[in-house]
């Protein structure tokens, strides 16, 4: 265990979630979506009600008119400047989601106080970002890709726990999977296991040799035995492809 190292890396997470127009008593001119199912494999699929600490919105998505990844560093600097100058408690990462059957650039935001959304929009607009105009969006399921920084500590060889998020775990897999293949394998493993209440997503991390492919697990009752079992089952199913 001594030789196992923590991971600190930029990367991507790919997941499916249910989104809809943000329910708010304010009439925003910008298109803002809220996350109705942050961990659909855990909550909605098995009809587990969210507790008082899980009141929605869990996160929101500010839909941009355009976003050039070449300017990602400018977005990061702008976000840091807003946090320092205006003392707003929030986390923001760039990404892309499927909206009306097309890709849409977005900013995924967590906020300590969602009453400050209007202020945050103004600060980003002053920094040069342009947002898509508001339209009413009924609930729909979207494939979402977000770029973020990952911090994780090792539990065993190839198995990790998030340092900055509760109940989040990771394990590595041998190669990248297209989403349809990942989803099919995930459903197959879940349907053949007694422990069904967890959510799975894909993660790709940068390292000096390229990308490390992983599975992200959200589970309130996870332990090393369950993670080891899942890692072995994914490896088996990937090997059969």
Summarize the structure.
With 241 residues, the protein is of the alpha+beta class.
Could you describe the 3D structure shown?
The longest helix has 17 residues, at 224-240. A hairpin with a 2-residue loop joins strand 4 (90-99) and strand 5. Residues 45-49 have low confidence and may be disordered. The two termini are 32 Å apart. The chain is globular, with a radius of gyration of 19 Å. It has 241 residues and is of the alpha+beta class. Strands 1, 2, 3, 4, 5, 6, 7, 8, 9 and 10 form a ten-stranded antiparallel sheet that branches. It has helices spanning 72-86, 117-126, 179-191, 224-240; strands at 7-21, 32-35, 60-63, 90-99, 102-111, 140-156, 159-162, 168-172, 199-207, 210-218. It contains four helices and ten strands; from the N terminus they run βββαββαβββαββα. It folds into two domains: 10-143, no CATH class; 150-240.
Task: List strands and helices in order, with pairings.
Blueprint: E1 7-21, E2 32-35, E3 60-63, H1 72-86, E4 90-99, E5 102-111, H2 117-126, E6 140-156, E7 159-162, E8 168-172, H3 179-191, E9 199-207, E10 210-218, H4 224-240
């Amino acid at each position: 265990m001594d030789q196992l190292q923590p991971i600190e890396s930029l990367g991507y997470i790919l997941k499916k979630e249910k989104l809809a127009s943000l329910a708010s008593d304010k009439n925003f001119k910008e298109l803002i979506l809220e996350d109705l199912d942050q961990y659909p494999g855990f909550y909605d699929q098995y009809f587990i009600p969210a507790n008082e600490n899980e009141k929605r919105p869990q996160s929101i998505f500010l839909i941009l008119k355009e976003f050039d990844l070449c300017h990602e560093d400018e977005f990061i600097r702008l976000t840091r400047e807003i946090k320092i100058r205006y003392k707003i408690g929030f986390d923001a990462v760039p990404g892309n989601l499927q909206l009306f059957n097309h890709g849409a650039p977005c900013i995924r935001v967590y906020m300590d106080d969602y009453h400050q959304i209007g202020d945050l929009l103004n600060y980003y607009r002053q920094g040069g970002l342009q947002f898509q105009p508001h339209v009413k969006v009924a609930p729909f399921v979207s494939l979402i890709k977000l770029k973020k920084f990952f911090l994780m500590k090792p539990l065993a060889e190839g198995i990790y726990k998030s340092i900055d998020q509760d109940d989040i775990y990771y394990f590595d897999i041998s190669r990248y999977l297209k989403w349809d293949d990942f989803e099919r394998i995930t459903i197959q493993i879940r349907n053949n296991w007694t422990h069904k209440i967890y959510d799975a997503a894909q993660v790709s991390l940068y390292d000096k040799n390229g990308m490390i492919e992983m599975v992200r697990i959200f589970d309130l009752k996870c332990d090393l035995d369950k993670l080891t079992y899942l890692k072995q089952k994914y490896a088996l199913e990937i090997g059969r492809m």
